[in-house]
Amino acid sequence: MSAISHETTQAAREPAVDMSADLGERWQALHESAQEVARQAGLARDLVFDEAAEEHAIFANVSDWQQKLALQALEDLDAVLQPGLAALRAIEARGRDGSAPAQALWREFLRSRESILALIGAPDEASGED
């Protein structure tokens, strides 16, 4: 129990670190990766998140605990997207149709994106919900 209270005390003494810039950069990079997934999924329209470039600023207005959880969620999503993209590229390089796995990866991206936006209390314009 003392280890927990010591860690809590230590964390309370450390100054709050604004991670919003790093979160914004990661948010933007994930959307760029998602664009490639959307292309490989064969989605007819150009799935550009119009607000993605500005949307990353939403991380500046959230609490420290939300920033920490959002950072972990972004890292988790990246851990899914990057190997998925590598597999999709390999499928494409072999001249195979990778649209089905790309669509599954796209849906995973959207669900994760919605969860992150819900975590920080931001509306998800892509889903049409407020």
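That was protein one. Protein two is written in the same sequence-then-structure order:
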Amino acid sequence: MNPLRTALFGLIAGACALAASSAGAIAATPAKTVEIKGEIIDTWCYLSGVMGGPEAVVGSAHHTCALWCAAGGIPVGVRAEDGTVYMVLKIKGEDPLAQTDTILEIQSDTIVAKGSHYVRDGINYLVVAQVVANEGITNKNHEDFGVVPGFAFPEAE
């Protein structure tokens, strides 16, 4: 084998080994039992901004789109009162989440969830054991933002 090629291969292999050993994923924290109050959100639209700013893609303005996303398998989250977003992995033991009616029944609602909280690589995860309270849709922002996206409801003929 060519000595230059051997040296290059060794350099690349060494760099990969070093990167793998020093930049590995941070292990998940042990589960903490928590009770969190917040709104069930559509994580894709909320985090990507594809349908508008963070205040437009929550509440009643974004409810129809959030239902579509949840039904299509986009993970839901809980946006706590302090603004922290928790990615919901399971709710009430149902699996897979996207194939259940539970999430569609509470999408955009403000709930109190009791469950297990994990953190890995700076991301908050929540396994909801119980929905302790459900206040319904309390963020009535459709008057401020209209329906997001605008094509969520067909125009009257």
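The domain at 29-150 is CATH 2.40.50 (OB fold (Dihydrolipoamide Acetyltransferase, E2P)). Keep this in mind for the problem set.
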